[in-house]
Structures are given as C-alpha cells and as structure tokens.
C-alpha cells in the first residue's frame, strides 16, 4: 500500500517570501502521479499542481513549483512571493496507475503573515 | 460545469438518527469517491466507485455506513444509526480513471449530538 507523509504540521512565512513544504511517499510502483491540494478556511479542496512520475522536469504553475526527487521519493512544494491568500492547509497526494484513488498526507497548515 | 455538488452543506442531527449525504459528480467522470476528514485522522477514503460499481469499501468504518451509486450522476452515503464520533466533514470527489486529478465538492459538515 502507498503511504504519504508530510512531516511539517504547521509552517509560517512572511508575505512576499518563499516557503517550501515537504512530502515523502512510499510505493513499489514505477509510474504514478503526485498532486498538491490546497484547502483554505472555506474547506474547498483546490488542486494546486501535479506531477507525473515519468516526467523528469519539475512542474510549475505560476508562483508554485515542485522539487520532485523520484529516487528519494520526495515531492516538495515551493511557493514563491507568498500572498496572504496562500494561507491554507496543504495536502500532498499520491495516485498510482493501478487504481484511481488518491492517498493523502496528513497536511501542513501554512500561515502567511503580513 | 458546476463541479461536484454535495448536499446538504451542513447537517446537525441527534445520535441514533439516520443521515443521508448526497453527491452529484461532474458529468462524464467515471469514478466517484467518498472521503471523511477529521482533525485526528485527516482525510480518509471511505469508498470509491468506478462506472457506478463499488470497487473498494475497505475504508467504511462499520456496518452503520453504506453507500450507493444508482446511476452515473448520483451517489449517497448513509449513516444509520449515527453516533457522535461520526461528526466530520464528508467530501465527495469525482474523476477519471487516468492521471487526471480528482475534483472535490464543498463537503458536508456533519455534527451528531
């Protein structure tokens, strides 16, 4: 079974600065997909970014980018130029090719301070 | 598209009562998931369907929980009888059985007193 671990329950960053959220996972599959979701206080689950394991290039979406290290089974999220609206719970998620289910990490609560 | 639609948004009920949560997935999606979110346990997968067929219900806590998907556009999660420990936010999500991400509804916050 796959597992996803987020070792940082809480993090904070000053507005306009950069922050990195950590995620590691465990799987025996060679091809799979990784996602970061954001959950603001409204509790809506919003997709932030995704990465396909067979792609070596790290995914980027505007101020959000990932550092995908397949050998280390690490998938960190970098948020540049942090904004107050980035304050939310961030979940790392794994999706294998053998099924369509998503396995989530425990989440990291990010607070952006003015 | 309106996205995944869940109802009700909030539900408050007394212990022992039956609770039914509803979900309308995004049209064209062939997978539907029910997740439960609590502070203690995070996001837990309860059950998921592919093409209206339950594939994995190993996450359903106990026999008090049941889920159905009578057609491609509707699913229910029922708790009977409800207990205070069932209090949580219940999410429905839909997607395709490929590398695409899941799309979540806004969740139902259930409080059992």
Would you mind describing this structure in some detail?
The complex is a heterodimer of chains A (114) and B (113). Chain A has strands at residues 3-5, 10-14, 19-21, 24-26, 32-39, 46-52, 60-61, 64-69, 74-79, 88-96, 103-104, 108-113. By secondary structure, chain A is mostly beta strands. Chain A is globular. With 113 residues, chain B is mostly beta strands. Helices cover 0% and strands 55% of the residues of chain B. Chain B is built from no helices and 11 strands. Chain B has strands at residues 5-7, 10-13, 19-24, 31-38, 42-50, 53-56, 65-71, 74-79, 88-95, 103-104, 108-112. In chain B, the strands form 2 sheets. In chain B, strands 2, 4, 5, 6, 9, 10 and 11 form a 7-stranded mixed beta sheet that branches. In chain B, strands 1-3-8-7 form a 4-stranded antiparallel beta sheet, with no helix packed on it. The mean pLDDT of chain B is 94. At the A-B interface, strand 5, strand 6 and strand 11 of A face strand 5, strand 9 and strand 10 of B.
């Amino acid at each position: 079974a796959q597992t996803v671990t987020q070792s940082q329950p809480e993090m904070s960053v000053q507005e306009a600065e950069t922050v990195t959220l950590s995620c590691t996972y465990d799987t025996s599959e060679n091809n799979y997909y990784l996602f970061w979701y954001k959950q603001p206080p409204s509790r809506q689950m919003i997709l932030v970014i995704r990465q396909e394991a067979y792609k070596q290039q790290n995914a980027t979406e505007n101020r959000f980018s990932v550092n995908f290290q397949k050998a280390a089974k690490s998938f960190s999220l970098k948020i540049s130029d942090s904004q107050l609206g980035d304050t939310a719970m961030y979940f790392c998620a794994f999706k294998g090719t053998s099924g369509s289910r998503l396995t989530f990490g425990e989440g990291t609560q990010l607070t952006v301070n003015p | 598209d309106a996205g995944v639609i869940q109802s009700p948004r909030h539900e408050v009920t007394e212990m022992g009562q039956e609770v039914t949560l509803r979900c309308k997935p995004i049209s064209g999606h062939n997978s539907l998931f029910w997740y439960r979110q609590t502070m203690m346990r995070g996001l837990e997968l309860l059950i998921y369907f592919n093409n209206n067929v339950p594939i994995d219900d190993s996450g359903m806590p106990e026999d008090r929980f049941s889920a159905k998907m009578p057609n491609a556009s509707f699913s229910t999660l029922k708790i009977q009888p409800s207990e205070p420990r069932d209090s949580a936010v219940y999410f429905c999500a839909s997607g395709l059985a490929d590398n695409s991400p899941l799309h979540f509804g806004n969740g139902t916050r259930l409080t059992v007193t």
